[in-house]
């Protein structure tokens, strides 16, 4: 009886500890979600459940239903006139629609997506070849290169920021928006390359060589075995590495803030959000809604690859 | 191109020396193939990581102009940096930040890993949920943390001021540098404990059970089991986590700067020097070099004295 009581107290205590850990981990996310749905009068209310649901911030960010708000009624009536062509209507409408002032969330989202996707895709292809070379081919100098890739872990972004910025300025790339954007694309590609190389190298080593041998005997070239054997066999690892690289680029702020500084319409989400926060348009519900929408793609991607990513992380291929 | 058919034409029955010649040329082919595959990565890393670092050292001896030619000024950038008291303040802040976050992350990670070893209902869900801080973009979580400490609406003030009456008046905890560094440390622990937890958990799962059974027969309590069996098994992984954490957090920028610009660790200090105001990039370059040397020094000390390699 006594023993039972003691173990009961223990399991209650244990449950409390688990609850504490979970709360610690996800409370900021819950608060973010809750605040994004609250009206201003509700902000000081410590409860996470909004008294009244407010979807205005999301609608604004995603451009739902905001288009017609600033258009006067007389113009709306004019637009119903059937004699006008479509382009005429559009050009009239354009003059009255809200511009500026609202946070161009979708554009920043697209900039971020384009940068992260392209950079991690190119880096993935280069990394597949490099990682194959690390894990399957034997030659002199291999060890040095492999250790060199690890050594890159030591360098923080700030050490590379000034020289890369100077190079971009001196070469004239930083003078135009597209040049800056391309510089940033290349930088993201480089930043994700070491991780991809390392993680993929570890995975390729776990594929038995005999499978490849069979393909070689069937007359495949080495290159073809990469294409037809290695890539299909390591698709889970490849998609994991791709998503991890995507996440690194998606989350990056330092380089983007410097390179895109004077090109407002090229901002990525992190830079745009930071700018929004210091600007006068900073309203908690809008900021939190933007935060939720920024985190969502990453969280979804993470849920897809969760299992693979965890084993990839623990086998040592990580960088922050 | 990549020696097609090299394996299909068997070398059986050839004379021994011919085999050696063939093996030799195969090895050369193999090396050539390997280099071909790694070359793009080497060129990219070389030209966009190694070269810029060398270029950074070069720049640190110049008065770097944003327009026009740079002027060589020798060690003046270094002298200016080292004689500036705010630099030494940044060094101190960095050390506090690195030590605080490293110890915190490792201990919290260890604790959580020990809890997650036991089975309980919904463990899979819990394990997935506690990884969220690690994967979410920094920018998307900093505002929630800022709101938490918001002097008007934040829950922290609600609890400490309204409920517990700990303070005289409402204030912003992130507003002053001394308090902000503590918040920055807690924020980083929150963000990175999932990583150390994962590393420790995967090591814990591979510990052989027989040691524990033997200890139980000898009448060891759970604390003794942890101290004499678990901890020694974890020694190496804990050492690795600590060194990775030190390297990463020494260079940490986003986790600090986006939460508050009140905490001037070296990365933030350099960023302000090189990209705001007069944009003194020469001094910025010198700072980056010094930061790198400090990190190397710290690591050498750590590897020798703590890990005893």
What level of helicity do the residues of chain A show?
A: over 70%
Instruction: Please write the CATH class name of the largest domain in chain B.
Output: Mainly Alpha
What coarse outline of chain B follows from CA principal-axis ratios?
Answer: flat
Number of domains of chain A: 3
How would a crystallographer describe the biggest sheet of chain B? Answer: 2 strands, antiparallel
Helix content of chain B: over 70%
Topology readout:
The complex is a heterodimer of chains A (about 325) and B (about 300).
Chain A: H1 2-36, H2 56-61, H3 73-79, H4 86-96, H5 105-136, H6 142-151, H7 157-170, H8 177-205, H9 209-217, H10 222-233, H11 235-251, H12 254-259, H13 269-278, H14 284-314
Helix pairs in contact in A: 1-14, 5-8, 5-11, 8-11, 9-10, 11-14, 13-14
Chain B: H1 16-59, E1 62-63, E2 71-72, H2 76-82, H3 85-117, H4 123-129, H5 132-135, H6 138-148, H7 155-163, H8 177-204, H9 210-217, H10 222-250, H11 254-257, H12 266-275, H13 281-306
């Amino acid at each position: 009886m006594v023993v039972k009581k003691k173990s009961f107290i223990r399991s209650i205590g244990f449950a409390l500890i688990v609850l504490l850990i979970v709360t610690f981990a996800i409370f900021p996310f819950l608060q973010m979600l809750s605040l994004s749905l609250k009206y201003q009068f509700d902000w000081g209310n410590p409860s996470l459940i909004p008294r009244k649901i407010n979807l205005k911030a999301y609608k604004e960010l995603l451009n739902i239903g905001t288009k017609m708000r600033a258009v006067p009624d007389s113009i709306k009536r004019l637009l119903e006139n059937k004699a006008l062509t479509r382009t005429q209507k559009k050009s009239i409408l354009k003059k009255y629609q809200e511009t500026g002032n609202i946070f161009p969330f979708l554009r920043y989202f697209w900039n971020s997506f384009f940068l992260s996707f392209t950079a991690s895709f190119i880096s993935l292809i280069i990394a597949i070849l490099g990682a194959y070379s690390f894990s399957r081919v034997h030659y002199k100098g291999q060890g040095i290169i492999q250790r060199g890739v690890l050594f890159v872990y030591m360098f923080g972004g700030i050490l590379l920021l000034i020289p890369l910025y100077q190079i971009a300025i001196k070469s004239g790339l930083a003078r135009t928006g597209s040049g800056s954007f391309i510089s940033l694309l290349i930088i993201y590609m480089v930043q994700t390359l070491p991780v991809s190389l390392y993680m993929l190298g570890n995975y390729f080593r776990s594929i038995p060589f005999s499978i490849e041998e069979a393909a070689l005997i069937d007359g495949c070239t080495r290159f073809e075995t990469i294409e037809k054997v290695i890539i299909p066999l390591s698709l889970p690892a490849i998609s994991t590495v791709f998503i991890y690289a995507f996440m690194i680029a998606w989350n990056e702020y330092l380089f983007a803030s410097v390179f895109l500084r004077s090109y407002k319409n090229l901002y990525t989400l992190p830079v745009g959000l930071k700018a929004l926060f210091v600007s006068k348009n900073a309203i908690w519900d809008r900021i939190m809604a933007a935060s939720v929408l920024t985190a969502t793609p990453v969280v979804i991607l993470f849920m897809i690859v969760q299992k693979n990513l965890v084993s990839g992380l623990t086998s040592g291929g990580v960088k922050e | 191109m990549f020696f097609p058919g090299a394996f299909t034409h068997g070398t059986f029955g050839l004379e021994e020396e011919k085999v050696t010649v063939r093996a030799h040329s195969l090895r050369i082919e193999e090396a050539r193939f390997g280099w071909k595959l790694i070359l793009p990565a080497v060129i990219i890393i070389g030209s966009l990581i190694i070269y810029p670092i060398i270029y950074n050292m070069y720049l640190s001896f110049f008065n770097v102009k944003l327009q026009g030619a740079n002027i060589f000024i020798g060690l003046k950038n270094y002298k200016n940096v080292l004689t500036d008291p705010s630099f030494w303040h940044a060094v101190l802040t960095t050390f506090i930040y690195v030590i605080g976050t490293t110890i915190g992350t490792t201990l919290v990670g260890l604790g959580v890993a020990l809890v997650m070893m036991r089975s309980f209902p919904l463990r899979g869900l819990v394990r997935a949920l506690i990884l969220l801080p690690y994967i979410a973009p920094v920018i998307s979580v900093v505002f929630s943390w800022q709101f938490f400490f918001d002097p008007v609406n934040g829950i922290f003030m609600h609890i400490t001021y309204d409920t517990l009456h700990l303070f005289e008046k409402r204030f912003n905890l992130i507003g002053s540098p001394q308090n902000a560094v503590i918040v920055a440390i807690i924020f980083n622990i929150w963000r990175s404990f999932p990583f150390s937890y994962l590393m420790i958990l995967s090591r814990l799962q591979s510990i052989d059970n027989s040691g524990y059974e033997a200890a139980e027969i000898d009448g060891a309590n759970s604390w003794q089991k942890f101290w004499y069996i678990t901890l020694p098994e974890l020694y190496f992984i804990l050492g690795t986590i600590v060194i990775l954490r030190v390297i990463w957090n020494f260079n940490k920028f986003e986790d600090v700067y986006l939460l508050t610009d009140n905490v001037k660790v070296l990365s933030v200090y350099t960023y302000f020097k090189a990209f705001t105001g007069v944009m003194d990039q020469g001094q910025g370059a010198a700072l980056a070099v010094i930061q790198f040397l400090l990190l190397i020094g710290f690591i050498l000390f750590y590897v020798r004295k703590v890990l005893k390699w």
